[in-house]
Amino acid sequence: MKRILSTARTEFRIALRNRWVSIALAVMAVFSLVLALAGSAPTGGLGVDRLSVTVASLTSLSVYLIPLLALLMSFDAIAGEAERGTLPLLLAYPIAREAVLIGKLAAHLAILALALLLGHGLAAGVAIWNDPEALTGLPALWRLSWSSVLLGATFLGAGYALSALSRRPSGAAGLAIGLWLGLVVLYDLGLLSAIVADNGGWFTTEAFPVALLVNPADAFRLFNLTASGATAAAAGVGGAADTIPLWQSLASVLLWPLAALALAAAAFRKVTP
Amino acid sequence: MMTSTLTISQLTKRFGEVAALTGVSLSVAPGERVALLGHNGAGKSTMMKIILGLIPATSGQISVCDAAPGSIAARRSVAYLPENVAFHPALTGEEQLRHYLVLRGESPSQAMGLLEKVGLAQAARRRIGTYSKGMRQRVGLAQALIGQPRLLVLDEPTSGLDPVSRREFYALLDDLAKQGASILLSSHALTEVEARTDRIVILSKGRMVAEGSLAELRRRADLPVTLHVTARNGSAPEIARSLPGAILVDGALHLTCTQSEKLAQLGRIAGLGDKVADLDVLPPSLEDLYSHFSRGTVQ
């Protein structure tokens, strides 16, 4: 346990000096503020409180931003150590490889959590300042916050796995961007075009909900929109939220971090320095 | 303390078709200092990585402090200094050592003491990114001293160190060996290994071609001894006549003879009386021994 904590502290220090902490905080703060200030613009007066609307916007933003931040922080984790030449010495120390991963994960998750705390805090502040009713949106914001941390954990784990598989930071960076584009951007486009082509057939009714649940980013969006009942404020893939029960998207949100971390551990175990 | 710290028998390692190590057997006793010599690519680093459990052996048995290489028990008692040791440039020397201390289950407060030991106390709070190669090497040495390692595996430990630091480093190793730690080190600087190790192992193309103390290796190789005789003004030609085989180089006479002829030859030179200004006896150097044994496998 001491070893994991020391690893986390060291990684946090490195991220602080590499400006990753300030980058994550600044990005989250700026985007959250912009969305909170422009919160009512896209939906107009819907009869929902202002914070709930902001949460719906933040959810759409987080689907893109959290995986990107997580992958950018994690792609270097193992490949970077291998390239710098610090890996052989680290692995000669009496610490399990899983413990090394958990230490790094703890540090990177802490950074994400700090960024979320700042961003969501600012968003809540702005919403409540402008609309006292916004207090009713706080549970939705809280749900968004913790599920964002879990989404971050999923993509951090995926980043570590890619980092261990490629063994070179440049290769890992390429894979990480590829994964982000694939899961977060192209996946939804592919699903939408498939639905259009399918025209209400088997794919739309049977395969589509499953396809949404197996993608951690889609499951995250689905979970937050279903839980807050804010589907009206969301368009596109989010519109499917009504048809999938909450427990299914929740299960996906909870299980993916574990699966990603297991993948990362399996990939790291195969690395020979 | 009766059993050896490190026992290797019939170790073989293949990378695909390439044999990196073939049938190497070696054991290192507590308190013993063993130098591993060999060309680049002779298999030294590979052997060290196998001992540490970083890469698996193809065949053969290895026991490190009565445990399997790479097991947590073995890693607890083995310290390692990799070749060209590196650290994260964003950390300071002190932060890096504190982390390593915790990983070894020691108190991080020992960090400054260790850095003082290797002469880095002044730079402890500077980032490692600003360190010179020699300073990084010292951080590497400091981390290898953590705790009470029973076996130190040091890959080219003195590369990048100046002669004074090298001497200090070997003094540190002597202390550790006196406390019962076994030391296995590789080096290119053969002369420094000569005086500072109990036993020398020569690897060539993945095979162990010689093993023993320096004196034993000298005896076995039976390489010629070189004598340098400096003549007094003008007497060089006369001396050359009485010492067959001598060559005149810059006013001094160089001649070689086998170990068994050495005393007779010295007697003859002493007999020349005051014609001789000075005499140097040069035993075969470790370099000579090394190339002698390395060549043996090639033929």
TrEMBL record, chain A:
GO molecular function, one term: ABC-type transporter activity
A GO cellular-component term linked to this record: plasma membrane
Pfam family, one: ABC2_membrane_2
Keyword Transmembrane set for record: yes
TM spans (from-to): 20-41, 61-80, 101-129, 141-162, 174-196, 246-268
Keyword entries, A-Z: Membrane, Transmembrane, Transmembrane helix
Domain of life from the UniProt record: Bacteria
Protein name per Swiss-Prot or TrEMBL: ABC transporter permease subunit
